[in-house]
């Protein structure tokens, strides 16, 4: 009986080391959607929302379809947003925008600070137009 118990303990130990504990655990799927924020100078104010672009645009973004199309057009690289020529004053009141999440399976982690909201608007709309 003692030999039998020792053999079982040895077999259990061998199996425990042969198969990693998480080998059958699949990677959790990425959480879809991109959390967007716009914040004012010294974080005196902040707005944020989650933009969902899976099959059709959804979420609380007032221009979700246009924002999703803009992100699609640059393959998720927000540095490539085309923007438009700004007609802005030279006022310095910095505004920071961030994007973090997953867009169509691609991770996005991006932020930029603009000298003022007019420049932010010219460079990033419709994505950060909320």
UniProtKB/TrEMBL annotation:
InterPro entries: Prot_inh_I16_SSI (IPR000691), Subtilisin_inhibitor (IPR023549), Subtilisin_inhibitor-like_sf (IPR036819)
Keyword Disulfide bond: yes
UniProt entry keywords in alphabetical sequence: Disulfide bond, Protease inhibitor, Secreted, Serine protease inhibitor, Signal
Residues covered by the Subtilisin inhibitor domain: 44-116
Record Pfam families: SSI
Signal sequence range: 1-23
GO molecular function: peptidase inhibitor activity
Subcellular compartments: Secreted
Protein origin, superkingdom: Bacteria
Quaternary structure, from the entry: Homodimer.
Family (UniProt): Belongs to the protease inhibitor I16 (SSI) family.
Protein name, per record: Protease inhibitor SIL-V5
Native organism: Streptomyces polyasparticus
């Amino acid at each position: 009986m003692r030999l039998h118990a020792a053999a079982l303990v040895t077999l259990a130990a061998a199996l425990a080391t042969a198969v990693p504990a998480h080998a059958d655990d699949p990677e959790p799927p990425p959480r879809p959607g991109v959390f967007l924020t716009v914040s004012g100078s010294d974080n005196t104010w902040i707005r944020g929302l989650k933009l969902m672009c899976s099959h059709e645009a959804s979420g609380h973004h007032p221009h979700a379809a246009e924002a999703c199309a803009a992100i699609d057009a640059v393959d998720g690289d927000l540095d490539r947003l085309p923007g438009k020529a700004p007609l802005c004053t030279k006022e310095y009141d910095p505004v920071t925008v961030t994007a973090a999440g997953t867009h169509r399976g691609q991770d996005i982690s991006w932020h930029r600070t603009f000298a003022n909201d007019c420049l932010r608007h010219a460079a990033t709309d419709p994505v950060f137009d909320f």
